[in-house]
């Protein structure tokens, strides 16, 4: 009878250890999920910023082309006129 009790207690300890390890794994899994969510948020923000930068670059390019066209329309006299 004593051996049965010892085996039962041993099994109970092992079950408790497994439960504790499972809790720890669940905790770390939640931390990983949180980290992945944070990375996804940063990537999304970077993507939005890149899109804004691209739009600003296109606008600057258009303005530069307009400025070039305006400057090209100036007619300068001979160098002796200065």
Concise description?
The protein is mainly alpha-helical and 82 residues long. It has a domain at 1-54.
Number of helices: 1
Assess the beta-strand content as a share of residues: under 5%
Largest sheet: none
Structural class, judged by helices and strands? Answer: mainly alpha
Element string (H = helix, E = strand): H
Quaternary form: single chain
Strand segment count = 0
Radius of gyration: 36 Å
Query: Residue-averaged pLDDT, rounded?
Result: 94
Distance between the first and last residues' Cα: 118 Å
Give the helix/strand layout.
Blueprint: H1 2-72
Description:
The chain is mainly alpha-helical. It has a domain at 1-54. Helices cover 87% and strands 0% of the residues. The longest helix has 71 residues, at 2-72. The N and C termini lie far apart (118 Å). Keywords: Chemotaxis. InterPro entries: MCP_chemotaxis. One of its GO terms (cellular component) is plasma membrane.
């Amino acid at each position: 009878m004593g051996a049965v009790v010892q085996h039962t207690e041993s099994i109970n300890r092992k079950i408790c250890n497994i439960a504790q390890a499972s809790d720890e794994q669940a905790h770390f899994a939640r931390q990983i999920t949180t980290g992945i969510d944070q990375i996804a948020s940063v990537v999304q923000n970077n993507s939005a910023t890149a899109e804004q930068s691209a739009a600003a670059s296109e606008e600057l390019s258009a303005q530069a082309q307009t400025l070039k066209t305006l400057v090209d329309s100036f007619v300068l006299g001979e160098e002796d006129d200065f």
